[in-house]
Amino acid sequence: MKTLSPKSAHSIFKLIEQCKNIATLKQVHAQMITTGLILHTYPLSRILISSSTLAATNSYALTIFNQASNPTIFLFNTLISSSLARKDDQVHFSLALYTRILTQTTLKPNNYTYPSLFKACSSQPWLQNGRALHTHVLKFLEPPYDHFVQASLLNFYSRSGELGVSRFLFDQITRPDLASWNSILTAYAHNTSVQYEASLDNAYDNTNLSLEVLLLFNQMQKSLASLNEVSLVALISA
């Protein structure tokens, strides 16, 4: 694969964005083949994203991807994240792509590989896959971990009902950024709502979790981290 700057003002990028269905996208794809643009990593990533969005299945995107010689980890990450953005369940497809990464001797996962996968594995029957992915983070990524990876881990354990693990991971972060603060605030606010719906009589635990959101929000303000709509929604929810 060859590199081409994302800032390159090539007309083909606008054509890809204007495609409304898979038929027009195939025409653009043909132009990319005849001009040789398909050999460049960034244009290829753009058509992968569009094909994942427009096609009824992942088969067309996978066909394009399989024709790339020595696809980079960037292309793998692009196809994983774009397939998971679909409304239908694509977790199995994305995990299969991740397995392909692990079988490549020249590739290894990076910070952009895991956030989408953790989000996808945060519900049954994929929870065990998410826990396995956590061990891969420890294996393949060098600490300190990217804040988006940390935030995705916090969200995963929160959604799987393991709030204590989420808090432990948050406390390991030396300087939490906005994504990390929002993740732990949302984790407590979400579990407050879950406990409230599960048992209206469990007022003591609900109050404790709500107070913890307020305390965390106070710490967030003292850290001078900027807040946004997500921060306020978590606060109001609690």
UniProtKB/TrEMBL annotation:
InterPro entries: PPR_At4g14850-like_plant, TPR-like_helical_dom_sf. One of its GO terms (molecular function) is RNA binding. It comes from Nicotiana attenuata (Coyote tobacco). GO terms for biological process: RNA modification. Gene3D superfamilies: Tetratricopeptide repeat domain (1.25.40.10). This is Pentatricopeptide repeat-containing protein.
